[in-house]
Amino acid sequence: MRQLLLLRRSLISVRFSSYSVSPQATISHDEPNSPAFAENVDITIAGGGLVGSAMALAFASSPVFKNHKIVLLESQSKLPQVSKNKPYSNRVFALNAQSISLFEKLGAWDLMKSIQSVIAFDQGHQSENNSLAYIVENDVIQSCLLERLKQFHVEPRLNSKVKHFEYEENSIRIKLQDEKINLRTRLLIAADGYQSSIREMARISTMQWDYNQFGIVATLQLADNMPDNVVAWQRFLPTGPIACLPLSNTHSSLVWTVPKSMHKEIMKLSDEQFVDAINKAFTSDTYKHSGVISITERIRSYWQQVIPASPTVLQYPPVIINVEPRSRAAFPLTLLNANQYVRPRLVLIGDSAHRIHPMAGQGVNMGFCDVLCLFNILEQAVRDGADFSSLIYLVDYERQRQLQCLTRLLSIDSLNRLYSTNFSPVVALRSIGLSFVNEFSPLKKFFEKQAASST
Ligand SMILES: Cc1cc2nc3c(=O)[nH]c(=O)nc-3n(C[C@H](O)[C@H](O)[C@H](O)COP(=O)(O)OP(=O)(O)OC[C@H]3O[C@@H](n4cnc5c(N)ncnc54)[C@H](O)[C@@H]3O)c2cc1C
Prior knowledge:
seven-stranded mixed sheet; binds flavin-adenine dinucleotide; mitochondrion inner membrane; mitochondrion; EC 1.14.15.45; Ubiquinone biosynthesis monooxygenase COQ6, mitochondrial
């Protein structure tokens, strides 16, 4: 109920938002010590994570923005780097077709493939290329984007945390934490993650709730050398989904959603106990409900009289024998959507605009969609000889992204709720629904396509 009220409030504020500048971020004269000198920049991207780095590369590599000064700010002192022999990192992503085509456009995809032998797995129909997803490590994506940026003479400015910004007549003045440099930028793009301080400074409200769940990630070692380890596994347990993404013949990556009350206990398990718990979560019959199974089986037999059964290949989840040292980590899970993605001269992208439950592996893919959408709009503006930082273009970005992101956030949220229960009627309904989808090929393809796209 509370969520419905929040959603209603959120939709109303999106609908009637006036894009005014917040009182905190208006022209301010209360900084007597601020140096008069400011470096002039066309576009400043704050946040050198995956989404911010891709955004910076999109502008830096575009001939249309050739004469524009692009700056990428990152608050941390270093960003991930990879070498060919480094062990797998614990953060990996299933990139969908749109993200891959963005990387191809940015000239980074070949570089990524040269560092890591990326595994492609089919999310949908074999013959349709756009249903293929590729598993790539966070560090590989990040270091390839930065490598490409270097080729266009853009280096992320490390230790550069945006501390404050204020509006000037035709620009935004940014003050950094170290207080040494001021930037005067025509456009500020916030890619500073889900706890975005820029969003806060702009007083942009959010719709958000805590899932009371944690996502536990780890790199897992498989029992056998499995050349056919190309299947992504996900099992829905009442405690939350557990997923395993293939990395190589010998390794897979874990994303395990657990209730907040359980996460500390799981993180404290010894490696052996942790491995046992994962194998059990993938295979145990504890959560099967005999009444539900019999109803589902009966209904399945009715369908088979009208719908020819699809040939089913029996496959089993891989057996895990070990967890890579220090690869276990836990992240709190929340849903968040900013009620506005833009303000004059300010745009939110990636997790600073929206944060989704990781069960469908959509988060970073949605961020890359923001990058593509914003870049296409601003590039067209420059081609038309217009001022790319004008609010007209920014609002166009918001119009395109808000509805798509909100729809995706809420549909994944509903799935998480549907699966996070042991209540028999719900379990029966969802089993029947799933069996129906599984048997009925056009529906199955429809859902698979939905999962493969993140727009
Ligand atoms: C457990 C888990 C599993 C996930 N699995 C998947 C998956 O399989 N597939 C998928 O698509 N997504 C997944 N996600 C989501 C994905 O991790 C995020 O969507 C993605 O990392 C967001 O990237 P970002 O660049 O927007 O933000 P971030 O990665 O948070 O980067 C923000 C950057 O901004 C910097 N910064 C912060 N404040 C400032 C400031 N004031 N000034 C300058 N710099 C600043 C930070 O240091 C950081 O480098 C998962 C998330 C979790 C928690």
